[in-house]
Input
Amino acid sequence: MENYLLTNEIVFESKPDAVPYNYRISYKMAQLCLIISNSCSGRAGCSLIKLHIISNALNASECMVALEDYVTDRRAFMIVQFDPAVNRAIKYAIADGLVCQLKNGTFKLTNVGKEMVKKINKEEIMMEEKAFLSKLGTKLTNEKIEQLMSLWRYKNAEN
Output
């Protein structure tokens, strides 16, 4: 049997698809800048896992409640989804000069990133995110993150 190529009969047309706002790189970059500004104090910067945990919480109100309950010890653990969009947004934020990576691997806002956060805070945008991050503050400590990660390690060891 002969194989026929149907290249003249197949037509591909690019159609614009709406990308959900929470997967748009510009939104994620703004979100990460707000997270670093509100939840990562001092010179230490913000760890990648902390960025993922808080970004995940901002995806849905139930996730926000879960994180709030976890940091206030009303919940012993929480589920975290690691989103590749966060990693891409970090790369773009570094390339745009909004964020820099410190020698210890954490991320910190540059002066350009701080200016962006000021502009976001002046506008009536990302209101839910800003309210949650203001309430959360720096309550998600490295100790709480380590506690959560140790649960993942030990639970996986049992399986």
Observations:
- The chain has one domain: 21-158.
- Helices lie at 25-39, 48-57, 61-71, 84-95, 111-122, 127-136, 142-158.
